UniProtKB/TrEMBL annotation:
Pfam families: Peptidase_M23. The keyword Transmembrane does not apply. It comes from the Bacteria. Residues 265-286 are annotated as: Disordered. Residues 1-21 form the signal peptide. This is Peptidase M23. It comes from Mucilaginibacter conchicola. GO terms for molecular function: metalloendopeptidase activity. CDD domains: M23_peptidase (cd12797). InterPro entries: Cell_wall_metabolism_enzyme, Dup_hybrid_motif, M23ase_b-sheet_dom. Residues 24-107, 169-199 form a coiled coil. Residues 337-428 form the M23ase beta-sheet core domain. Keywords: Coiled coil, Signal.
């Protein structure tokens, strides 16, 4: 019974350990990805640092480095907490296994002593012949046979428990070493973070000496973003109006057909067909009703919604410069972003996040904008140097749309991604998968 309890305990411990291991593996993968991104930023910063003239690009790289280091420190904290839990579980396992081993050894010692006292064949025979009757003698004979088998089995349990104990002690030592390495790595990252923040202060100070030029760059950026947002908003409004007119015309055509069918049924003295229960598109219809007026559009909307949180990023590799909502630029001016501004590699392919139909391909402030319709949802990809699709073309998820352009103000290859439900901008964080 004790053995089965021990097995049950080990199964529970292994289950918990496995859950921790899975989480630790994910955290480790994220830490390694952050390391790769930091290495890339360090290389790019060294390239910009060789230029005596301080630029917004340097400041943006420093901001990205600081954000990544802060995220890495948070990631390490989570890894350390996981290891603390694993160490605690391992300590409990070691104590439990040691207690089981002590108990098994104690029981085995008692069996050995009993066997020693009854080792002679004479004593065994006397034990059997001292029985009251034949049945009792038979049971005593079976007992002696089972006792030997049980003693061998107990010896096997002791060896197995010793092996498990040795494995757990090794795991415990490994976890402690890994924790110490992580803590050392964390201290190093904190030191690098402090250096990056000091460098950022110096760069901001140097930039302030070029304030006139920098302010003009920032005005150009804000102007370009405003132009892009207007182009997207106007394009979506046009698509909604086109969909409204098409739906209204279809409704009128269906009404005329229904009236003609009713008149024919009356002339032939038949019952007219039951009127359609589908609501007609009118001036008071919502944008959602208009954009989902056809079965194909409704299906695409449902499929797009069903992939919320799992959509791929519009670039394979990228770091977020500005997220959705209000942010403050280097000049202290508050801005509002309708989507994600993503820093990526030079000439990086830009891809569709979901299947849909390209509705707009246009030039905005010297760079291309691509707008794709997914039922009642729209995704927009701006600041493209080149495009490989055209309006009216059906595209699939991850299909190449073009290549990222370099922002003339910052020198960074960037892509601006926005997602709308009808006319309402959505936060891409809720829709895109973890990068």
């Amino acid at each position: 019974m004790k053995f089965f309890k021990a097995v049950l305990f080990l199964i529970c411990v292994l289950g918990v350990t496995n859950a921790f291991a899975q989480s630790s593996a994910e955290l480790k993968r994220r830490r390694e990805k952050l390391n790769d991104e930091l290495d890339q930023l360090n290389r790019e910063y060294q390239e910009t640092a060789s230029n005596k003239k301080v630029s917004l690009k340097q400041l943006n790289i420093l901001k990205a480095q600081i954000n990544l280091r802060e995220e890495k420190i948070t990631n390490i904290n989570s890894e350390v907490r996981n290891l603390d839990n694993q160490i605690s579980q391992s300590n409990n396992s070691v104590r439990s296994l040691q207690g089981q081993l002590d108990q098994l050894k104690k029981e085995y010692a008692g069996m050995v002593l009993f066997a020693y006292r009854n080792q002679s064949a004479y004593n065994k025979l006397m034990f059997i012949f001292a029985a009251k009757d034949f049945n009792q003698a038979y049971r005593r004979l079976k007992y002696l046979q089972q006792f030997g088998t049980y003693r061998e089995r107990q010896a096997g349990y002791i060896q197995g428990t010793q092996r498990d104990l040795h494995v757990k002690i090794n795991e415990l030592d490994h976890d402690k070493k890994e924790k110490n390495n992580l803590l050392a790595n964390q201290e190093k990252e904190k030191e690098e973070l402090g250096k990056a923040k000091n460098t950022q202060v110096k760069v901001i100070s140097d930039i302030s000496k070029q304030q006139g030029e920098i302010k003009q760059q920032q005005r150009d950026v804000r102007k370009r973003i405003a132009q892009t947002n207007r182009a997207i908003s106007n394009a979506i409004a046009r698509e909604i109006e086109i969909a409204r007119r098409e739906a209204e015309e279809k409704a009128r055509a269906e009404a005329r057909a229904a009236a003609a069918a009713a008149a024919k049924a009356k002339a032939e003295n038949r019952e007219p067909a039951a009127p359609s229960t589908k609501p007609a598109i009118t001036k008071s219809s919502t944008n959602s009703q208009i954009l989902n007026a056809t079965p194909e559009a409704a299906r695409l909307s449902n499929d797009f919604l069903g992939n919320r949180g799992r959509l791929p990023w519009p670039v394979a590799n990228g770091q977020l410069i500005h997220g959705f909502g209000v942010y403050t630029d280097a000049d202290g001016i508050r801005n509002e972003s309708d989507g994600y501004e993503i820093r990526t590699n030079a000439n990086a392919p830009v891809r569709a996040v979901f299947e849909g139909e390209v509705k707009v391909v246009t030039d905005v402030a010297g760079a291309y904008l691509v707008l794709i319709k997914h039922g009642e949802y729209f995704t927009a990809y701006s600041n493209l140097k080149s495009v490989s699709v055209s309006a009216g073309q059906k595209v699939s998820a991850k299909q190449n749309l073009g290549t990222a352009a370099t922002d003339p103000s910052t020198g960074d290859p960037t892509v601006i991604f926005t997602l709308n439900k009808g006319k309402v901008p959505q936060n891409p964080k809720s829709w895109l998968a973890d990068n």
